[in-house]
Amino acid sequence: MTFNQKQFFIKRDDLLHPYFSGNKARKFAYYLKHNFNGISKVIGYGSVQANSLYSLAALAKLRNWHLDFYCKPIPKWLIENPIGNYEGALSLGANIIEVDTLTANLEDYVVKKTQPLSNSELFIPEGGRCHLASSGVELLAMEIIQDCNKHKLENPIVMLPAGTGTTALFLQRFLPYQVLTCACVGKKAYLEQQFEELEPDSTKWPHIISTKKNYHFGKLYPEFFKLWQDIKQQTQIEFDLLYDPLGWLSLQEYLNKKPTERPIVYIHQGGLKGNESMLPRYRRKYST
Length: 288
What we know:
globular; ACCD_DCysDesulf; alpha/beta; 4-stranded parallel β-sheet; Rossmann fold; 1-aminocyclopropane-1-carboxylate deaminase/D-cysteine desulfhydrase; 12 helices; 11 strands
């Protein structure tokens, strides 16, 4: 695609499957393709509007498993008018369990609540952040290499925004190209901590880029909305409203500081179900 007179190559992982696509489909691919004899329930946790909730619900449906998903209290308005990933997960049969009182973080609560697991239960960390995610990301890396060879893209730069950074980390492991990412959920130190838990050798990490301005995850910014609108208008491609605006803004600032003739491959990681809730928020605040 061409955006602001510069060419980008888009890996359309948003088109993998009607409701099992993007980076979560890659990270959860191991659970879809391997045998889990005797498993009938999968347990997860996170935000009630997380992409991982919808993807876990899709995984459970495809595997004919039951999903128990733990989250913090759900706003009353959302319960009364389900939308986005929450609505999508409910439609796929997810059992969403609100945790009213926390004495520790949500992960510690869920682990304590559900351990030890029975032989029929499977626990998946938040967002699929574990070593098992590497197999699906390895397949993504192979596809990127094949695509680059097919289109004769020499020494490309691969860019994707990060939550826990699992996809970016494993991509750098399997790709012979430079991988760029940006910290969407926390700051650079948070992302480096996530990397270190899965790969202690920092020389094997992707390169973290950032913007001059600090942004808070989930908060609405007019420059995010305008950038998202501009990309959609110029390319006819709809990107995620939660991660991709910061991803594209970080990439733009990086390229302004370090202009390059190397091809840029941007990975579209899906997450469009979440736009059903994000877009009305933006339109209410920044109606145009």
